[in-house]
Amino acid sequence: xxxxxxxxxxxxxxxxxxxxxxxxxxxxxxxxxxxxxxxxxxxxxxxxxxxxxxxxxxxxxxxxxxxxxxxxxxxxxxxxxxxxxxxxxxxxxxxxxxxxxxxxxxxxxxxxxxxxxxxxxxxxxxxxxxxxxxxxxxxxxxxxxxxxxxxxxxxxxxxxxxxxxxxxxxxxxxxxxxxxxxxxxxxxxxxxxxxxxxxxxxxxxxxxxxxxxxxxxxxxxxxxxxxxxxxxxxxxxxxxxxxxxxxxxxxxxxxxxxxxxxxxxxxxxxxxxxxxxxxxxxxxxxxxxxxxxxxxxxxxxxxxxxxxxxxxxxxxxxxxxxxxxxxxxxxxxxxxxxxxxxxxxxxxxxx
Length: 351
What we know:
The protein is an alpha/beta fold. It has two domains: about 35 residues; about 220 residues, Spore Coat Polysaccharide Biosynthesis Protein SpsA, Chain A (Alpha-Beta Complex). Helices cover about 40% and strands about 15% of the residues. It is extended. Keywords: Membrane, Transmembrane, Transmembrane helix.
């Protein structure tokens, strides 16, 4: 009897394990079967379909080395830009580097630390902040800070009201490149330690995007985008990278990532803790490497580091406020106690 119960419990644990980690087990099995540097199960892909509203424009990403090999189709097609639209965007673009990031009002303290470090080491460089909440709170908080622009961004396409997108980075990135010729994308929890940022070096002047991160431990263990991008490149974590060569290829790559972002099955990345992650930079590296416009760089000067931020200590005004509140409470409690004592004494005298 006891053996049967143990078998049932063990079987339950095995079932629960497979239920929770099905995707990771499935991916591992395919990696063992097809190899770590090959596209998984390519037999299902063929004949890239076309967008119904665009001539000769595929709506499925094809393998750069084999155009007949395509991934799954995306849900949306983007209309191509007219020459006048491209000229108008080019006229608005500044030919200089700008920092950019996405943040919410709850991260304003970290933002202020980052802004202070930018003002200290790069006083003339602009910072573009995309408000993830798309409200006026963050804009009102930072309105008087020089070289800081808070952008309330609206998606260029309509999505179902019931669906809420958590990561709009590919759309933010495209908007940033409309404003400046070169963008250094930052994380909100970082700060500059010196003025030797690699983005200002002479050999990177013409590279449109530089992504900077100091978190080497984050790793995407579950992803939906693999079946949409049939490439033979395996992505890994990287602390600092630059997208090289021409803007036209980068523009096309960003459009593919936007299509992925608007397709729920593709825009699904999770880490080892089953937490949702931003797929943008993993896919960007994947496609840029396939198109030979990617180069990995190291921050050898340790220009950017994680913030050693902590809540501000209580200053003199804070201390005075606490003393006044404490004194008021003590006086109020004492007065109430005296009043109750006085009433109790009167009752005793009457009796």
